[in-house]
Amino acid sequence: MSLRPLAGAALTALALAATPAPARGQSKGDAFAGRIPPVSSYLYRKAGRFEVTLSGNLSLNDAFVSKYFGGVKVGYHLTEFFSVSGQVQAGTTSRTGSAQVCRSNQGCSPASPDQLWQVPGHLDLVAGVEAAWSPVYGKLNIASEKVVHFDLSLLGGVDWISYQEVVSSAQAADLVAAGQTPGNKGTIGGHVGLGVRLFFTEAIAARLELKDYIYAVAVPNWQEGGGARKDVQNQLFAELGVSVFFPFQNRSAP
After folding, report:
1. Which of helix, strand or coil describes residue 207?
2. pLDDT recorded at residue 226
3. First to last CA, the chain
4. Number of neighbours of residue 84 by Cβ within 10 angstroms
5. Residue 88's closest CA among 76, 68, 72, 67?
6. Does the bond joining 247 to the residue before it have cis omega, within 30 degrees of 0?
């Protein structure tokens, strides 16, 4: 009897035995396969489009005065990475819970308006221009059901900052006696910050930004006799807004 048929059958059996069976773990891991198509490029493009943002702004680091602003920003995206914009924000201020005056013989009580006039932080309006660099574009996979696209930005700009004049204790007493309040002053300042966009559609995105506004203001009462000096202020703001892009659809990639 020839051995060739037996050898062929044996080789066939060995080949089948060497073929790996589908792993159980792989079949479980592939349960969501195909449910989210892979995205290998920018799905939401910004280059050549205008962006209009309406926002709410809240101060974070002022121990004496809380600021609640509304703002609008209009920007143009030169490329996917670089943009320029103009913005303005204004609103109201209120005394914080930590603005207390403590005396050794009277205990602590909330600071009066004339006492708060003697500290900086009463901003009325901030308007300026801004440049942004967005080096990061990414995607988040949420519960294997939805992909959220986002970008991260570094921000910097120059601002006109309007604020309530800081007065000395003697000036505050005179203003109270006359039934008046301190006037407003303005100065040039600047800001730096970080921002993130979460894209919902080609036309709509949410924006979250954290900015540090820097400016100098004259503060009396630094020395005996009411001497004043310039003090550099760092006003930290959190900004949450909704952006609309024009045109509503992506422009064609170059």
Report:
1. strand
2. 52
3. 73
4. 13
5. 72
6. yes
Query: What is the extent of the structural domain holding 90?
Result: 42-94+110-246
Contact 118, 166 (CB under 8 A): yes
Nearest-angstrom CA–CA distance, 79 and 160: 27
Number of domains the chain contains: 1
Distance CA 33, CA 87 (A): 44
Please tell me the distance from the alpha carbon of residue 253 to that of residue 96, in angstroms, as a whole number: 50
**Chain segment 62-72, per-residue pLDDT in tens:** 989 999 999 99
State yes or no: pLDDT of 173 exceeds 50. yes
Q: Of 228, 225, 213, 203, which Cα lies nearest the Cα of 45? A: 203
**Domain at 233, CATH number:** 2.40.160.20
Sequence-distant (≥ 6) Cβ neighbours of residue 59 within 8 angstroms? 65, 66, 67, 235, 236, 237
CA-wise closest residue to 231 among 117, 120, 67, 96: 120
Would you say 202 and 245 are in contact if contact means Cβ atoms under 8 Å apart? yes
CA distance linking residue 78 with residue 71, whole number of Å = 23
On whether the CB atoms of residues 215 and 161 are closer than 8 A, the answer is yes
Rounded Cα distance, 68 and 240, in Å: 12
189 within some domain: yes
Q: Which residue is listed with tokens 């320029």?
A: 84
Tell me the two tokens of residue 177: 């006696």
Q: Are residues 132 and 182 in contact, defined by beta-carbon separation less than 8 angstroms?
A: no
For the whole model, what pTM was predicted?
A: 0.79
User: Which DSSP helix (H) or strand (E) runs through 149?
Assistant: strand 146-164
